[in-house]
Design brief:
Helices cover 70% and strands 0% of the residues. The protein has 76 residues and is an all-alpha fold. It is elongated and about 60 Å long. The protein starts with a helix and ends in a 14-residue tail after the last helix.
Length: 76
């Protein structure tokens, strides 16, 4: 699954490189370029979600974080 996403991202980068030359020539090329950019962003997000450690994220959400106050910076 991960390799497929990486290959898809590479394909989108190749498509973007080819479309970049023709962005200003027509609105269809511009729209297609924008569509490919969105598709690439979605694929990158999916890849990021696969790499994320779900257990660690769950623990981080459970444990309360101490928020720093302005007065904490002036303590000696």
């Amino acid at each position: 699954m991960k390799k497929e996403l990486i290959n898809s991202i590479r394909e989108k980068e190749i498509q973007l490189a080819k479309l970049k030359e023709h962005i200003n020539k027509s609105t269809i090329c511009s729209d297609l370029y924008n569509k490919v950019v969105l598709e690439k962003a979605i694929l990158k997000k999916q890849l990021e979600d696969i790499d994320r450690n779900r257990i660690l994220d769950f623990i981080k959400n459970i444990i309360p974080h101490k928020k720093a106050l302005i007065c904490d910076y002036f303590k000696k």
